[in-house]
Amino acid sequence: MSTFQAPKGTYDLTPPRSATFLAVREAIAAPLRDSGYGYIETPGFENVELFARGVGESTDIVTKEMYTLTTKGGSQLALRPEGTASVLRAALEANLHKAGNLPVKLWYSGSYYRYERPQAGRYRHFSQVGAEAIGTEDPVLDAELIILADQAYRSLGLRRFRILLNSLGDKECRPVYREALQTFLRDLDLDEETRRRIEINPLRVLDDKRADVQQQLTDAPKLRDYLCDACKAYHEEVRSLLTTAGVAFEDDEKLVRGLDYYTRTTFEFVHDGLGAQSAVGGGGRYDGLSEMIGGPELPSVGWALGVDRTVLALEAEGIELDLPSTTSVYAVPLGEEARRVLFGVVTELRRAGIAADFAFGGRGLKGAMKSANRSGARYTLVAGERDLAEGVVQLKDMESGEQGPVELAEVAAELMKRLG
User: Fold this and answer.
1) What are the backbone dihedrals phi and psi of residue 266, each rounded to the nearest 5 degrees, phi first?
2) Those residues with Cβ within 8 angstroms of residue 167's Cβ, 6 or more apart along the chain or in another chain
């Protein structure tokens, strides 16, 4: 047992479970790559102000959950709690919005950090795959991103997820609703912290999960009643595009998400098998974020899907992904000369693109064959002094049990033929 353990609220990814996480990341990324999204990677920490301005100073993420640090030079940095602000900052810094056609379509994958009470499905270190389409205001773009996320989840075999959809209005109509909501909320029996939130960002109160607060919100003014004609038309177009594409969704008028930068379209993917932490991902449109962090007007939309949450959703549905074996061929040498020769064969196989492994440590035949079986290899190569003297190795099919000699010079060609 090691003296040290992973910090509370974090986890290590180790084989074989790590292969599932890699497969989930690949499944989420695949439809994005096929739709014109290029990969972007940003630092694990950023200037604190990037998140304070973009995510919102009133959010729990900024006020309670960010890991912050002061550098030796006195700079205030924060481990990134989410991806959108970092990606937009990087795109602006690289002038990607000036390089060609808009939108700039980007996808990313990485780790994020929030200090919160650890529980099933909620960690202090977590993994996401995200996508952002920067610089264009178009309901088709909103629909595209939702459809791509739906496609990714269905490609994994998930069926018990739901898409919640809402519109948060824009800078024209939301202030009117904000004032009406504040007037309503000020008359409720709420704690001091929630009352402070009413003055800073009252829409966040609608996202409060406490039952006693939700009971008091029954008669709260509805945002849909305050949407301007342009926002209504925009939202109806998104809904129509999703319906035409055969993507089911549920209208959720209380869906506001936890970040201040969202405008108009907002959505969330939830899974009914995950209990209280049911959200597996979400996103929306953030037309004013670029200006909030000092950039030009760049209407944008994006989402992030939790890899850890998605894996839990797969487990909740009892789905086991069909993962390829990490090893196709396993070499078992018997004697020093065979070790040298078979290691050369393994190297040749790897260069030919065949996943091959080797019985290291000079173990006996019985122990080495147990390792070959545990590796999941389809074929095992066995060679001793007599085999080498005859210029052959023994090739064993681990599924059928059949075994026979193959000319040493023909091993790679024979395996490539059998493995397709």
Assistant:
1) -140, 145
2) 223, 224, 227, 231, 232, 234, 235, 264, 265, 266
CA atoms 397, 400, 402, 406: torsion sign = negative
Residue 282 · residue 257 · CB < 8 Å = yes
Q: How many angstroms separate the CA atoms of 103 and 153, rounded? A: 24
**What is the mean pLDDT of each successive set of 10 residues along the chain, which is 420 residues long?**
86 92 97 97 94 72 83 93 95 94 96 85 90 97 98 96 94 89 91 86 82 89 91 97 97 78 91 86 93 93 96 95 91 94 95 94 90 93 94 95 94 91
Give the CA angle between residues 365, 370, 371 to the nearest 5°: 100
Do 304 and 128 contact (CB within 8 A), yes or no? yes
What pTM, to 2 d.p., does this model score? Answer: 0.89
d(CA 342, CA 357): 10
Q: Which two tokens stand for residue 392?
A: 């052959």
* Position 55, amino acid: V
pLDDT reported for residue 355: 94
